[in-house]
Amino acid sequence: MSRGIKKFVYGIGFLLFFAGVIFGIYTVVFKAKPTCFDNKQNAQETGVDCGGVCAPCAQRYAQDITVESIIKFPANGRVVVIADLRNDNEDYGFRDVVYTMIAEDETGSVLGSTSNHTFIYDGKTKGSRYIVDLLDVPAKDIFALKVEFSAPEIVSSKEFTEPFVSIKRSSTDVVGLRKVIEPAYVFSREIKVGMTGDDVKNLEDFLYKKQLLKKFPDGTFDADAVIALKAYQKSKKLPTSGVLDTRTRTSINAEADRVAKIVIDPNASVSISGNVKNDDLLPASKIIITGFLYDALGIQLGGSKTEINNLEAAAEEDFKIVFAKDIPLDKVDGTKTRVFIDSIK
């Protein structure tokens, strides 16, 4: 090998050596170390700036829980709040999250709040559910309601699956209602020509249905009404005075239309009872059963919930959901009742 070539080779070697030294110094002294905020997947990260030594990827990329709607119902001086939640994350669920329900007045001042823990599965399997809670605030004072979330434990959908728990039976039980038949109206005063009022119209309506009054009832006891009343008195062999006196009132009250009326006892109540079974191979640590009541038109009257803790595999347990006394019991249509179940291992 010629002397010139040797010099060239040695020169290249020295250059590479010095370049390595300089790069080493740069790497050790000047180059930024990997962090969880450099928008790169490096170090022991399993994703960009997540996993490994960084926060779990689920917590970094998951969207917040959405509150679809919030409704309220009076409950014995307090208020029942029902929030409809949705999880749009198809690959992540919230194994635990703290929710806070907040009631505000018209100025935005907080009237009251309550906090609790809940869970919600991924959007693919069961990404929606209701939460029900009580606020120690009169319903009439509330202008706005909101729900805030904190301290979420977000996990992959593969790690968070719902146990096979189902409702085997349920029924809506209304206790303390009585059906009575009573007169549609009762006449209590003397009525004579020239008088007006609702009772006059009821009297005219009675005579009209008997085909004695020739005009349409208008609430004025005029000459036509007097003639009709005299005709009725004559048919009952009563003095034909044309005045609704005591004997005539007694006779008409006995014949007045009867109507059915629902009487609600002071201790009346409504509840949903049923039975749940855990068909899973593992115990269910918590089961939340939520019930909604409706009237015949499908208008919601209220909501409530109950919980069962630690239901063993293959086990069954009865439940009962109790509702506030503010529910209009005479309007409850048991065929419209809806019951939801949410459970966690």
Note down, in words, how this protein is organized:
It is a single chain. 21% of the residues lie in helices and 41% in strands. The strands form four sheets. Strands 1-2-5 form a three-stranded antiparallel beta sheet, with no helix packed on it. A three-stranded antiparallel beta sheet has the order 4-3-6, with no helix packed on it. A three-stranded antiparallel beta sheet has the order 7-8-11, with no helix packed on it. The protein has 345 residues and is α+β, with helices and mostly antiparallel strands. The protein has four domains: 3-47; 62-156, Immunoglobulins (Immunoglobulin-like); 185-256, Muramoyl-pentapeptide Carboxypeptidase, domain 1, CATH 1.10.101; 268-344, Immunoglobulins (Immunoglobulin-like, Sandwich), CATH 2.60.40. The protein contains six helices and twelve strands. The chain has helices spanning 3-30, 57-61, 123-126, 198-209, 223-235, 246-255, and strands at residues 66-75, 78-86, 92-104, 110-120, 128-135, 144-156, 165-183, 258-278, 284-294, 300-311, 316-322, 338-344. It is elongated. Residues 196-250 form the Peptidoglycan binding-like domain. InterPro entries: Peptidoglycan-bd-like, PGBD-like_sf, PGBDSf.
